[in-house]
Structure prediction request, 237 residues.
Amino acid sequence: MDAKYKRVMIKLSGEALAGEQEFGIDPATVQQISESVKEVYVHDVEISVVVGGGNFWRGRQGFGMDKSTADYMGMLSTVLNALALQDALEQMGVPVRVQTAIEMKEIAEPYIKRKAMRHLEKRRVVIFAAGTGNPFFTTDTTAALRAAEIDADIILLAKNVDAVYDSDPAINPNAQKFDHLSYLDVINKGLKVMDSTAITLCMDNDIPILVFGLDNPDNILRAVNGEQIGTLIEGGN
Ligand code: GTP
Prediction:
């Protein structure tokens, strides 16, 4: 089976790692996600990953805090998740390199684009941690930025819903599901897929985004094979 996409950016939310417990790291869930990543890895796909940190801390939780400080706390929480994923993948025999946007050399490599590219070429999964290293930017924007830098074919945006809808399907049973959207559709319709900084970065750099659910563990592989799942965001109007 030949994968449609050869180099992918997988964006995982921090919450995805928490499983049912909704906080912290659920080892069984991390194991399951890592197995899904491995399934793609063995199909000769070059894999990069950006993981959020919302299972530990969200920048907007910092009520009354200095926004930058709250965001730095969020960046640190992504490092915890990156290390957990690295460990789980390596235990399955998948080589992984973690690179952090804020230097913490005792823990992981600093982010160096050329080194990241070399790791990918050498068949290592690269996990980008600590966001962009800047406050006021989300991990979705990190995924868009790193995808542009490493020339990824697509961003696989794994969510806890199976696609993009015109309203919340958990609240509105008549919510309409979109199979395909343009970047401008997402912005103009105010759809809460990614923040606008991330979407415009993808638009300006022609990086398609596939939004899909992690409910089915095979979905990452199906996405990489170009199966029609979730919502594909690309192109103009
Ligand atoms: P090649 O240069 O392609 O051989 O890549 P490599 O990652 O195998 O070699 P390198 O000697 O750069 O790294 C060996 C190990 O040390 C890998 O697990 C790296 O992730 C890790 N490593 C490299 N640089 C750093 C760093 O600055 N800090 C930490 N903590 N680990 C590092």
